[in-house]
Each structure stands twice: as structure tokens, then as C-alpha cells.
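Structure ticket #2291
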Amino acid sequence: MTADSGTSRAATRIGGWSLIAAALGFMAVFGYLAARFDYPDVLDGSAAVVLPRLLALGDAGRTVWAVYALLPLLLIPAAIGARTALGRVAPNATRAALVFATVAAVSMLLGLARWPSVHWELARAYATATTDARGAIDAVFLGLNVYLGNYIGEFLGEVALNTFFVLVGAAAFRSTSTGRWFAIGGIVVGVIGWAAAFRNVTSVVSPIAQVNNYLLPLWLIVLGIVLIRWRPASAGAI
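Resolution: structure written out below.
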């Protein structure tokens, strides 16, 4: 094994394990917040309902939110691993995939990080605020949820993430190292994710969004396993 092939092998394995860690971490923190914070249904509540419950999570809950916010950053080494694996056969698609994965990681980080940071301080202030001050806090809370939550974290982040899936699937069509099931699967998962990203616009896609909640961590694990087991592919270019 040459030094270059050894480095490439390490990059794909790191990328694969990053995806599996992201999936397992997502399921763990989602389960914790669902049980302790009624997540994600609680997100539709006002500051008067949500902020006291957020503060009641304590330091442990704040730590969980912080971990949740950092999990999307694992998409970056994952995308580097995918580019290492498929870059020879699809350099343009994998280059774009790395860009979209980075956009997704940063967007989701910004959306989730509002909870252990800005929202946490709003919750502290809300506990002792006057009636007028609470009205102002509620406006800030709802505004941040719409901007950082709905638009940046959910919509932009999920559209970029699923574009990454589609591009990796498209690149996999040019490789002899995976079956066509993997290429088709990546594109199908990405298209489903695109549709689910519009759940805040129309309730028509709500059933698709529910399916996507289970499909996303599953596909992260599948993609991770593929990268961990990766073997060099034949050359080409798209």
C-alpha cells in the first residue's frame, strides 16, 4: 500500500465513522430532548411555555443542546471522505458535495446553537423580567426561532444536506466500487429530504417529514458503512 492510498483510506474511514457518530449522536440527543423537553413539539410554543422548560433542563440539558449543535460539523470530514472516495470518478460532483455539506454543517450549527446560548440567556432573563420585558423577550425568542431555526437551521441546512446526498449518489453512478442501489438510494433520500424541508411552508409534506426523521439517521449510517468499507474505484469525470 502506497502512502497516498493509505492516506485516502484513512480519510474515507474517518468520514465514514463521522457519519455513524453523527447518526448515533442525533438519535441519542433527540431521544433525550423528546423525553425531557417534549422536543420537537415544544418548538411551537411561546417564550412563556418554552423558556422556563429550557432552564429546567439544568446544566446537563444545556450540555446536551451544545453537543446537538456541534454534531452537524461531522458532515465536513464525512464530505472529505466522500470526495476522497469518489473524487477520481466524479471530481466536479464531489467538489460541489463538499461545499454543500459545509453549508449544511454551518447552517445547522447556527440553528441549534441558539438553544444553549441566546435562548438560555433569554430564559434566565425571563425568570425575573417584568411583564413588559417578557413581551420583548417573547418577540426576540420567536424571531430567532423563525430566522435561525426555520430559515437557516432547518430550511437552508436541510436543503444543503440533501443536495450533498444527491451529489454523492450521482457521483456513485460513475464508480465501480458500489452497487447502483447506493447511487439510487442517495438520490432518493436527497429528494425526500428536499420535500421534507418545506414542512414549515405547507402541511402537505408533513407525512414526508415524518418519514425523513427516520430515514436521515439510517442513511447516514449506510453512507458511513460504505465509506468505511470503501475500495478504490475506476476513473472518470462529471
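Closing remark: Residues 3-228 form one domain.
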